[in-house]
Amino acid sequence: MTDTVTGTDTKVDTRTRLLDAAEALFAERGSESVSLREIGRAAGARNVIAAQYWFTDRDGLIKALIDRHRPEIEAARHDLLDGYEAALADGTAGDADARIHALADALVRPSAVKLDQGASGAGYLRTVADLLTRPEPQTEPLGYDVEGGSILRWRALLEPLLDPDAVVLHRRFHVIRFVDVELAQRARAPGRRDHRLFVSQLVDSAAGLLGARVSEETRRLRAERNER
Q1: Do 104 and 206 contact (CB within 8 A), yes or no?
Q2: What is the pLDDT of residues 49-95, one digit of tens each?
Q3: pLDDT per residue as tens digits for the range 171-189
């Protein structure tokens, strides 16, 4: 069956082509600088409003792109968190530093898999970074606050290990954003094939940031802010 809006063979094929085109363009230029019309043209659509037809607007397309990758990442992170909780239960999770490192690993590795998925993975990683680095970060399309989601679970498991001031000052979100921006930057690097060292160091860096001491100056400034 031919779709009269796009001229392609089936509805499923049309939507897939648009998402494929969006990922490739976002991988090259980021999600903020590509128009829906460009995506339609790159997908081979005959009608310039094809992307609007299928996704309504840019936010709808970005949500569809995120949803395309999210199940794989969610499943992988839940598996790692299952392993972490099993280690807690049998007493092999180690001290607080080891636990923080294990949770940093559970944050980084599921998304790092996208580095090995070509333009599709790179387009996803750059889109996530773009959402988190907006003047007002957008987490809703990423499902970070969805009940039963892996990030909500990760945050809950991590909270008892952090300084209470670090929790209040959004240390966990800052580390999530750091990790996603670093992954997006790595995805832009030409010719990189072996990501093992990069990913291992990123886990180490995330663990270091999560466990970093809250300075007395930071505590004082926070108290002053609360008094105002």
Answers
A1: yes
A2: 889 999 999 999 999 999 999 999 999 999 999 999 999 999 999 99
A3: 999 999 999 999 999 999 8
Write down the architecture of domain 11-55 according to CATH: Orthogonal Bundle (1.10)
End-to-end CA distance of the chain: 64
For residue 2, is it left (φ>0), alpha (ψ between -120 and 50) or beta? beta
Contact 95, 211 (CB under 8 A): no
Q: What pLDDT does residue 23 have?
A: 97
Task: Give yes or no for a contact between 12 and 68, defined as CB atoms under 8 angstroms apart.
Answer: no
User: Can you give the length of the chain in residues?
Assistant: 228
pTM listed for this prediction: 0.91
